[in-house]
Structures are given as C-alpha cells and as structure tokens.
Amino acid sequence: MSEVTAVPLRPIAKGSLVKLWLGIAVVILIGIVFAYCGTAKQVTMAMSPQEFLDSNAKKSGVHQTPSGLQYEVLKEGTGPRATSSDMAIVNYTGKLLSGKTFDSTKADGKQQPRPMPVGGMIPGWTEGLQLMNAGSRYRFWMPPSLAYGEQGAGGGIIPPDAVISFDVEVLAIAPAQMGMGGMPPGHGGM
Known about the structure:
Elements: H1 16-46, H2 49-57, E1 62-64, E2 70-75, E3 86-96, E4 101-104, E5 106-107, E6 110-111, E7 114-117, H3 123-129, E8 137-142, E9 164-175
Antiparallel strand pairs: 1-2, 2-8, 3-4, 3-7, 3-9, 5-6, 8-9
C-alpha cells in the first residue's frame, strides 16, 4: 500500500490576489483591443463611401474642403505653395480603405521623389497639392468624385466608386516652365 504524504498549502502572500485579478483584467483588455483592431478594417470596408467620409470628417484633426476632399496635416511646411500651373516634387503613398497600397514613390526601400504637374492630376491631387507648402506632409482622403469615380483605375486595382487615401510630402515647388519634365506614366489618369 502506498501512502500519500500530505503537504500543507502555503497561504497566498498579501496582495497576490489583487495582482492575479489585475493580470486577468490586463489579458482581457488586450483581447478586446486585438478584437477591435481585427474588425475595424472590416467595418470600414463595409461602409459606403459617403458613410466612411462622414465618419472620418468627425475625427480630430481632419478637415474637409467644400468639394469633399478631406485632409489631415501631418507636418506643416514653410516653403512656397503650389499653383495649378506649377510642378510639385513629391513623395507619396496611395492606399485603398482596406490598407492595400496601390501606388507609391517608395521602391526597394528608398524614396524616389517624382515631379507632378499640379494641374494635370486627378481633381483630389490638384486641389490637395494647392493646400500644401513645400516641406509639408498631409494625408488626403479623396471621395470617388475627386479620384477615379465610377470607372475605377489601374485595371481593377482601384475599384469603381472607391475612396482612396494618399500620404503626400511636398519636397519642392517649381514653375512648370522650368522644364521639370512631364508626368510619369500611369499617374493622374492611371
């Protein structure tokens, strides 16, 4: 016959129960945050363009022009402001609301600034670039009417009636007659 030796349990140290409950609360809170982050993108994608823009316009720091272009100033520059006849040298990243990047000046991990004719772009770009001083970084949300509208673009990469966003940094402004070259292929009309 085997015998079981009884080992007395030690009492829980003072404050350990509080630490246990705090630990459980932290784990639950982290779970809630992950659940929210995991569904926020799906909720955004389920919204109509107008529902998204109405919701986005209420966020702190987001401004809206009369045309419906929404923007957030990430960094305000002090250089000159572009006119529709100027060229802007920019870095940018264009994304769908799903977060998928469809165009960017970043290639192989390096920024490749591009000259853009301010007046020769989609309406959202033309309007947005004229809000920015050289040295500025803005985030734009463009309703379909200021982007690629009912037709979409890029052979289906940008779907019809898509709200698109761009993070844009204006490096310099140059008058168009200075021979900055034309618009890179695929930009402005995709």
